[in-house]
Amino acid sequence: MIALADCNNFYASCERVFNPALKNKALIVLSNNDGCVIARSNESKAIGIQMGEPVFKARKLIEKNNVTVFSTNFALYGDMSKRVMSLLSNMSPDIEIYSIDEAFMDFSGIKNYLRLGLEMRDVVLKHTGIPISVGIAKTKTLAKVANHFAKRHTKKDIYILDSESKISSVLKLMPVSKIWGIGSQYAKMLNSYGVKSASDFILLDEGWVLKKMTIAGLKMQRELKGEPCISLDTSPSRKKSICTSRSFGVKVTQLQVLKESISSHAARCAEKLRLEQGCARYVSVIIKTNPFSELDGYYHGYKTMNFNTPTNDTMDIVGAAETLLKSIYKKGFIYKKSGVIIGDIIPQNQIQLNMFDVDQNKAKRDSLNSAVDFINKAIGKDTVYIGSQGIAREWQLKREKLSPCYTTKWNDLLTVRC
To answer: Rounded distance, CA 27 to CA 42, Å?
Structure first.
C-alpha cells in the first residue's frame, strides 16, 4: 500500500502557526510581486476567492470580508516543509518527497493503516502545527484520489481505499479533471468524448488511451484500476539544471541594476549547486521586458557560456553571468525580469580536469565558499555576499505583506512576554 501525506492549505497553515489569532479566519497568500492568489484558507475559498486570481480582481471580496493578506515567505515555508518531511521520514523511512507539501510513503507490511495514518497526522500537528491529510491505497494515483477525499469528506483527515467496492464508488464521484496527471487540455478532450468521471476513464479502451494520452495516460488508467505502474522514487535523480529568476518590483532600465540582480541570481545558483555537491558545465543569462505592455517594445535577451572546467565557485559563475549580461543588454528598454540558469550538472567528485586550468587559488576559493555557506546557513541568508549583488537592491520583489521569517532569522524570533 502507498500513503500520500499532504499538508492542508500549506502556505496559509504556515502563517497560522505563528499567529493563532488567524485560526478560522479568511487569509490568502500572494505570488511574486503580490500579483496573484496562490494559497487560500478554507474560509477564503468559501467566500469565492479563486486560485490564481489577480489580487486587484479580488479586492472587493478581500475588503468586504476582512481577509488577511500575506506576501510569499518562501524561507518560512521551505523550513516548515523540512520539519514536516523529517517527521514523516522517521515514521516511514521509504519516502518520496513529491513537493514542498506532499510526500508518498511505502506502507508495505503495515498491519494497521489507520493507526499509522492517525499517528502521522497527530505527530506532525503537535510538533509543527501544520494539519495534514493522509490518503492510502494500492497505487500512487489511487492514493492521490484517497487524499482528495480525506481532505473533503472525512473528519479524521484519513481515507483508505482498501476494497474494490470502495474504489468503485469513489471513482464515480471523482471528476476526471481532478485525477493526478490530467491537466485542463486532457480534461477538455475527455469531456468532449463524454468522459466525466474517473470511473468513465477506467472503462476506456487502453489502446485509445495510449494513442490519445501517451504511455503516461495509460499508466494513469492502470493505476486507477489498482495495478502499480508508477514506483516510489525514494532516491531522486540529480538535478540537470538549476534556475533562479525573479520579476522586478520596480521599473528597471539601467545596466547596473540588472547587474545586481544577475549577480544575486548567479550567487544563489552557485550556493544551491554546492548544496547538491555538483558542478555546472555552463551558465545562461536571461533578461526580458514585459510581454503584455502595449506601450513599451518587447525584448528577450538570452545567452550561454561554457566553462573550461565544470565549477560551483561563486566567483566563476557570477563573473561569467556578468559578462553574458553585458553582451545582451540593450538601452532604451524597461526590463521586467532577469534570471540565471546553470546546467549540465555533474558530481563534483567526477570533474575531468582541463590541462589549461591552472588556477592556483582554487583551494582558497573552495575554503572561502564553504565559509560563506556556513555563515549564511547559521546566521541568515545573505549575511555575507558579493559586493556586485548591491546593498539597497531596490529591484527586489514587491512584498508589502511579508510575515517574519520566524524560524530562519534571529531577528524574527517570536518574543514571548510572561
So the answer is: 9
| Rg of the chain, C-alpha, whole Å | 24
pLDDT band at 302 (very low <50, low <70, confident <90, very high): very high
Q: What distance in Å separates the CA atoms of residue 402 and residue 409, rounded to the nearest whole number?
A: 14
Q: Count CA within 13 A, CB hemisphere, residue 79.
A: 15
CA–CA distances in Å: residue 83 to residues 62, 79, 198: 31, 6, 34
3-state SS track over 365-389: HHHHHHHHHHHHHHHCCCCCCCHHH
Q: What is the mean pLDDT of residues 91-115?
A: 88
| DSSP state, residue 25 | S
Instruction: Residue 287: count other Cβ atoms within 10 Å of its Cβ.
Output: 25
* Coil vs helix vs strand at 283: strand
pTM for this predicted structure: 0.76
Digit-coded pLDDT (tens) for 185-224: 899 999 999 989 999 999 999 999 899 889 999 999 999 9
Measured distance CA(343)–CA(326) in Å, rounded:
20
Q: Where are the alpha helices (DSSP H) in 129-235?
A: 140-153, 164-173, 184-192, 198-202, 206-224
Please state, in angstroms and rounded to a whole number, the distance separating the CA atoms of residues 49 and 61: 7
Rounded to a whole number of angstroms, the distance between the first and last alpha carbons of the chain is 48
Residue appearing with cell numbers 494515483? 141
Across the range 371-398, mean pLDDT stands at: 78
Q: Do 40 and 51 contact (CB within 8 A), yes or no?
A: yes
- Determine the 3-state secondary structure of 218 from DSSP: helix
Cα–Cα distance, 402 to 69 (Å, whole number): 9
